[in-house]
Write a structure and sequence with these properties.
The complex is a heterodimer of chains A (194) and B (271). Helix content of chain A is 64%, strand content 0%. With 194 residues, chain A is mostly helical. Chain A has two domains: 108 residues, Orthogonal Bundle (Rna Polymerase Sigma Factor, Chain: A), CATH 1.10.1740; 65 residues. The radius of gyration of chain B is 45 Å and the shape is rod-shaped. The chains are: A mainly alpha (194), B alpha+beta (271).
Chain lengths: 194, 271
C-alpha cells in the first residue's frame, strides 16, 4: 500500500495532481513494463501504453464517477492490457500471452467505450507529439483560439500587431500541425478503417 | 453555363493545396456561408479523398479544444522525463559506486598483495623480498614436479626472519607437546612423524585425507616460542612449505583445525 489510497489516486488524477501522477509512474509503470515486454513490446511501447492508459483513466474518471470493484492497480492493468492487445492486433504482431502477474480479480475493462479506444488514443498521441513541437506562440494561439478567446484579445496577449495577423497566424499554425501529423509514419496506422 | 464555369473555378481553387486547408478548416469551424457551404459539399461529393482530411481536421480541432487533457498530457510528459532522469541518476550512482569499489579493491590489493602478512616486519620484509620471491619460485617448481602436492592458490607461507631459530635449544613447554595428536574434527596427518629433520632448503610436506574446508591452519614457531611462518584457511589436502630462507636450528609446528590443536611436532634443520 503506497502513500495514496485508490480513491485519493482517482481524485488526484481528476485534479491532475503532479504528486499522484509521479507516484503512479513510480509504482505502476514497472507492472506495465513487465506486461509489455513479456508480450513482444519494447520499453518505448510500454511508455506509450502507460501514458495512453493514464489518459484513458483520466477521461474515464472525468466522464463519470468511477466505481471500482477491484483495486485501481488491477483496473489500470486491464486498461493497459486491452490497449496493448488492440495495438498488437492492429499491428499484426505477435499473439498476446496471458499474464498472471496480477492475482487479484480483474475488472474487465469496457473495450466498447468509444472515447478510450486505442486507435483514438494513438491518434491523439500523434497529435500531442507534434503539437508540443510547434513554436510556443503557435501552441498558445491555437489553445487560445479553441478556448474561444477573441482574436483581438489573442493579438494583445501575444503581442501581435492586429487581430488579422492573429487570424493568419492561427491558420498557418494549424496547417503546420496538420501537415506534420499527416507526415507522421504512425498516423496512417491508427486511422479507423471501420 | 455560368454555374458550370463557377464550379470549375471552385474545383480549381479547391485543388490548390493552400486553399484546401482553408476551406476544410472553415467548414469544420462553421465559418462557411450558405453559398460556400453548398459549393464545398458539391466538391466533397465528387472528391471523397477530402473527407479524410476533414476528419483529421475535425479530430484535431476536438483535440485542441480539450485544454484540460492537453494540460494533463503536459504533466504526464513531465513525469515521464523525471522518471527517466531518476533512472539515469540511479544508473550514474550505481556506476559511480562500482567505480569506487573497483578503485578501492585495486588499492587494497596494491596495499595487501597475496602472501604479504602483518607478521613480516616492514624493515625486514623489504630486505627479504628478493629472497622470498626466490623461495616462492622454488616452491612452485618443486610442487609442479611433485604429484599429489598442490600449492595453495590464495596464500604463500608467511615468514618473519626476525624470528628464525638461532640454535637447537629445546623450548620446554613445546617439547612436552610434541607428538600430541587429537582427533578434533576427524583431522589426522598421514605418515605422521612428529620429529622431522631436514637440511636447509628442503621442503616440509604434510598430507591428510579429510576435507578441511578452509578451517585448517598451520603454524611454525622457533625455539623461543615466536611464530616464524603460518598458513591460514587451508583448503587442499596437502601442504608444502619450502625452508630455503630458514636458518639452521629447532622449530616447532602445529596444525589447528576449527580452533582445536590437532597435531604438534618439531623440525630440526641441520646441514
Amino acid at each position: 500500500m503506497g502513500p495514496f489510497s485508490d480513491s485519493k489516486l482517482i481524485d488526484g488524477i481528476i485534479k491532475k495532481r503532479r504528486a499522484v501522477i509521479h507516484f503512479m509512474y513510480k509504482d505502476y509503470f514497472p507492472l506495465i513494463l513487465a506486461l509489455i515486454e513479456k508480450n513482444s513490446g519494447t520499453f518505448q511501447d510500454a511508455e506509450d501504453i502507460f501514458q495512453d492508459g493514464l489518459v484513458a483513466l483520466y477521461l474515464r474518471c472525468r466522464e463519470s464517477e468511477l466505481v471500482l470493484n477491484c483495486s485501481l492497480r488491477s483496473y489500470f492493468y486491464s486498461i493497459c492490457r486491452n490497449l496493448w492487445l488492440q495495438r498488437l492486433e492492429r499491428k499484426h504482431r505477435l499473439v498476446f500471452q496471458p499474464d498472471l502477474l496480477v492475482n487479484e480479480n480483474e475488472e474487465i475493462y469496457n473495450t466498447k467505450e468509444s472515447f478510450t479506444r486505442e486507435q483514438k488514443l494513438a491518434r491523439h498521441r500523434v497529435f500531442w507529439r507534434h503539437f508540443k513541437t510547434l513554436p510556443e506562440d503557435c501552441q498558445n494561439i491555437l489553445l487560445m483560439y479553441f478556448d474561444k478567446i477573441p482574436f483581438r484579445e489573442v493579438a494583445e496577449k501575444l503581442g501581435f500587431s492586429d487581430e488579422n495577423y492573429a487570424k493568419v497566424r492561427k491558420y498557418l499554425c494549424k496547417k503546420l500541425l496538420l501537415k506534420r501529423v499527416k507526415k507522421d509514419p504512425e498516423y496512417p496506422n491508427c486511422i479507423d478503417h471501420e | 453555363m455560368l454555374k458550370k464555369i463557377l464550379n470549375i473555378l471552385i474545383v480549381s481553387t479547391m485543388n490548390d493545396n493552400e486553399n484546401i486547408y482553408k476551406w476544410i478548416s472553415r467548414y469544420n469551424e462553421g465559418e462557411l456561408n450558405g453559398k460556400e457551404m453548398d459549393e464545398f459539399l458539391k466538391i466533397l461529393s465528387s472528391n471523397p479523398e477530402i473527407r479524410s482530411d476533414i476528419e483529421l481536421d475535425k479530430e484535431l480541432t476536438e483535440f485542441l479544444q480539450d485544454k484540460d487533457l492537453i494540460e494533463f498530457r503536459r504533466i504526464l510528459d513531465q513525469a515521464r522525463v523525471n522518471r527517466r532522469r531518476g533512472f539515469g541518476m540511479n544508473c550514474l550512482l550505481i556506476a559511480a559506486l562500482l567505480t569506487a569499489l573497483v578503485a578501492f579493491g585495486g588499492f587494497w590489493l596494491y596495499q595487501n598483495p597475496f602472501g604479504k602478512h602483518p607478521m613480516i616486519k616492514n624493515g625486514v620484509a623489504e630486505t627479504l623480498d628478493k629472497q622470498k620471491s626466490k623461495a616462492e619460485n622454488s616452491e612452485s617448481v618443486f610442487l609442479r614436479n611433485a604429484p599429489g602436492f598442490s600449492v595453495a592458490p590464495f596464500s604463500k607461507y608467511n615468514l618473519s626472519c626476525d624470528n628464525l631459530a638461532a640454535n637447537f635449544r629445546p623450548l620446554g613447554y613445546m617439547e612436552g607437546m610434541v607428538g600430541v595428536v587429537s582427533r578434533a574434527g576427524n583431522f589426522h596427518l598421514l605418515s605422521l612423524n612428529s620429529q622431522i629433520t631436514i637440511i636447509p632448503g628442503d621442503t616440509l610436506r604434510f598430507r591428510w585425507e579429510e576435507d578441511v574446508g578452509g578451517h585448517l591452519s598451520f603454524l611454525v614457531m622457533n625455539n623461543r616460542g615466536e611464530f616464524v611462518a603460518s598458513r591460514d584457511s587451508i583448503f587442499q589436502s596437502s601442504l608444502a612449505i619450502p625452508t630455503i630462507l630458514w636458518t639452521e636450528g629447532l622449530y616447532y609446528w602445529k596444525f589447528i583445525h576449527r580452533d582445536n590443536l590437532v597435531s604438534v611436532g618439531k623440525i630440526i634443520i641441520r646441514r
